[in-house]
Design a protein that fits this description.
Keywords: Lipoyl
Subunit structure: The glycine cleavage system is composed of four proteins: P, T, L and H.
CATH topology: OB fold (Dihydrolipoamide Acetyltransferase, E2P)
CATH architecture: Beta Barrel
Strand order of the largest sheet: 1-2-3-9-8-5
InterPro entries: 2-oxoA_DH_lipoyl-BS, Biotin_lipoyl, GCV_H, GCV_H/Fam206, GCV_H_sub, Single_hybrid_motif
Structural class: alpha+beta
GO cellular component, one term: glycine cleavage complex
Radius of gyration: 13 Å
Protein name: Glycine cleavage system H protein
CATH class: Mainly Beta
Number of strands: 9
Helix content: 10-25%
Number of helices: 4
Number of domains: 1
């Protein structure tokens, strides 16, 4: 299982990687492993400004649908269009090609309140 150090993590198993004034958001390797084969990703919030921990979409596996929570407040700029035809990218490459959305955080410093790789690893290994 991967725990990249260039991203921050939430207790709900989302990750965020800030690049300049844009941030990528996805689900963690642990989350995709627990969910199983992802069959659909629904992001109806593109263009909306949401608060931290608000639901920005859902991820569907064979037997269940799970909510996706925004790690920091900000505007949802774009969803990963590649997931429409290939939702399994989230399973194959959760920190790369399987990203879910790009956001413009209201305050990029908010990511400092999230878990680093070691803290997240400790959380999932409890």
């Amino acid at each position: 299982m991967e725990f990249p150090s260039n991203v921050k993590y939430t207790k709900e198993h989302e990750w965020i990687r800030v690049e300049g004034d844009i941030a990528y958001v996805g689900i963690t390797d642990y989350a995709q492993e627990q969910l199983g084969d992802i069959v659909f990703v629904d992001i109806p919030t593109e263009g909306e400004t949401l608060e931290k921990e608000e639901v920005f979409g859902t991820i569907e596996v064979v037997k269940t649908i799970s909510d996706l929570f925004l790690p920091v407040s900000g505007e949802v700029l774009e969803q990963n269009e590649a997931l429409a035809d290939n939702p399994e990218l989230v399973n194959k490459d959760p920190y790369g090609e399987g990203w879910l959305i790009k956001i413009k955080p209201n305050d990029a410093n908010d990511v400092n309140d999230l878990l680093d790789a070691e803290a997240y690893k400790a959380l999932v290994n409890e």
